[in-house]
Amino acid sequence: MFYEPKSGHPLPHNPFKAIVAPRPIGWISTRGSLGDNLAPYSFFNAVSDSPMQVMFSSTGGKPDREVSKDSVAQIRETGVFCCNLVSFALRDEMNASSAGLPAGEDEFAAAGLQKADCETIDCPRVAAAPAALECRLTQIVKLLGESNYMVLGEVTGVHIDEDFLVDGMFDVTRAQTLSRLGYRDYAAVREVFSLNRPGQG
Questions:
Q1: At a CB cut-off of 8 Å and minimum separation 6, what does 64 contact?
Q2: Predicted local confidence at residue 80, as pLDDT
Q3: Which Gene Ontology molecular-function terms are recorded (predicted)?
Q4: Per-residue confidence (pLDDT) for residue 173, from 0 to 100
């Protein structure tokens, strides 16, 4: 089958997010004048490793925010944010933090999560996350579509729970890192394999 998105799709549900999958989940924490905020974003990824940089995109608006959602509004205000890794063990808390709470209502509290302080920025992080990346905003890019924004940041600090280090390497199978698929589906990383690039021993 073939369809042009501008004309809609002929399926019961939009397949786009199922096609572009799996997608890492950026569990973005921020602190602003209204308090602390935490929300998961599936349009998230690393975009550079020298210097280390990440991005996430916020789509759609929120009636109690002038532009976009709480995360983007607070990052505009403070210039910092933290990307927390979601493990399988934290799936329910991550899901709870996706609720459309009023601006200023703390998702950490709503999801029953303990906060920890960041080291290089004034921002909370999820204490139980297997890893967290402290970030300083580099730019916010307006995307096509109403209230669609891409946020880019440079990583200024890295937290790793040493329970997830094996032989000096971060073990995603121990964390069982969550990724977002299409529809209401998620996946947990439980199996990995290695490949050498051509010419590598």
A1: 102, 103
A2: 98
A3: FMN binding; oxidoreductase activity, acting on the CH-NH group of donors, NAD or NADP as acceptor
A4: 97
DSSP state of 157: E
Residue ranges in the chain whose pLDDT is less than 70:
none
d(CA 133, CA 81): 9
The full set of domains in the chain, from first to last, is: 23-188 (2.30.110.10)
**0.70 exceeded by pTM:** yes
Write down the pLDDT at residue 60: 84
DSSP track, 43-95: SEEEEEETTEEEEEEE-S--TTSSSS-HHHHHHHHHSEEEEEPPBGGGHHHHH
Which three-class secondary structure state does DSSP give residue 173? helix
User: Alpha-carbon torsion 192, 197, 200, 201, what sign?
Assistant: positive
How far, in Å, are 19, 87, 157 from residue 127 at the CA level? 33, 12, 15
List, for residues 13-38, the tens digit of each pLDDT value: 999 999 999 999 999 999 999 999 99
Residue 108: both structure tokens together: 């950490």
